[in-house]
Structure formats: C-alpha cells, structure tokens
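// run 5 | inverse folding | seed 20
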C-alpha cells in the first residue's frame, strides 16, 4: 500500500468477503480488547507483586531456572530496555500518542493478527504509562518497574525488562510480520504481481 491508502505499483488489494464485515469487526474488537486487557493486567499484577515482595536493592535478586533468568527489581526512567533514560516526560507524551493512534487504528481493524499485535502493544504501553503517571518521582516523570534479567543478574547480558516491554516487543514483531506478508488492518491482503 502507498501512503495514500492505494495499492502500491504492481500490487492488487484483495478485500475481505462481502457481508462478513460486521461480525468480523466485532470479533476483532473483542480480541483486541481481550489481548490489551490481559497484557495490562499481567503487567500490573506482576509489578505489584515485585514491589511488595522483592526489595529494590542490587544484591536482592532471585535466581530462577538455573540462571536462565533472575528476578530483580529496578526502576527505569527510560523506555524499553532502559533506552532514553532521562527523557521520562517525553516518553510519557510519546506513550500517550501511541495509545491514541492504536485506538484510532482499531476502528478500521478487521484482522485477527492485527488485533493481537496492536492489543499487545496497547496493553504494554498502558502498563508502562501507568508507572510513568503514578510512580515516584511524580506524575509524568515516574519510573517504570523492571524486574526480569535474562541469563545473568543486573542485566549483564540483556537489559532488565518487564511484561509490558515483552508485550510491546512481541506486538511489534507480529505487526512487522503482518506488514511484510501484506496483511492490512482491515484484513485485506496486498499481493505483488
């Protein structure tokens, strides 16, 4: 597809089956909402448990599955994987814009794949946005609770992250796969030919 919504040169758009739009839309909206709420709830519940049970101290960590991952509470003022540290207010605004764009895009959504992808991104964005709005040091500047360290403590092999980060990354990867395969939000496919 081109930026104006028309098929790209040499491509044809295959629309969804006629008459299937209303039930398909309802199913995708329900799927989208269920995935977003599930991602958000899992993130919030995990962070509440981590804050309550795992002290924020570099030496207080739990080794799990023989060191495959460590549970370790840290506070992150940056974006996913500690990128953009120190830009918390800007990241809060970006998250608000992302949430708005996803909700607006959901109005056109008819694809189950896109419902899952955007639901994951929305749930993850809302999970981290909640931290930024409600955690110390204050509204719009709050630090995100991260707690999963892979293959070693202290993020020595991979940055420490949380379930919201995982949802965002998984949703983005799925969205990239859908885009490469030519599947549009409305469920139509763009075929090169």
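// decoded
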């Amino acid at each position: 597809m081109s930026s104006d919504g028309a098929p790209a040169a040499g491509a044809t758009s295959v629309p969804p089956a006629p008459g299937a739009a209303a039930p398909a839309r309802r199913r995708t909206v329900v799927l989208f909402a269920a995935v977003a709420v599930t991602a958000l709830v899992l993130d919030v519940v995990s962070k509440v448990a981590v804050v309550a049970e795992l002290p924020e101290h570099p030496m207080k960590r739990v080794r799990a599955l023989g060191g495959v991952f460590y549970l370790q509470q840290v506070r992150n003022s940056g974006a996913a994987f500690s990128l953009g540290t120190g830009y918390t207010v800007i990241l809060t605004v970006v998250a608000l814009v992302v949430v708005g764009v996803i909700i607006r895009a959901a109005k056109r959504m008819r694809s189950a794949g896109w419902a899952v992808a955007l639901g994951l991104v929305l749930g993850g964005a809302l999970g981290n946005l909640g931290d930024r709005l409600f955690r110390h040091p204050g509204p719009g500047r709050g630090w995100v609770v991260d707690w999963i360290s892979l293959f070693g403590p202290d993020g020595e092999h991979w940055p420490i992250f949380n379930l919201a980060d995982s949802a965002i990354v998984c949703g983005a990867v799925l969205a990239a796969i859908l885009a490469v395969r030519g599947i549009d939000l409305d469920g139509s496919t763009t075929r090169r030919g």
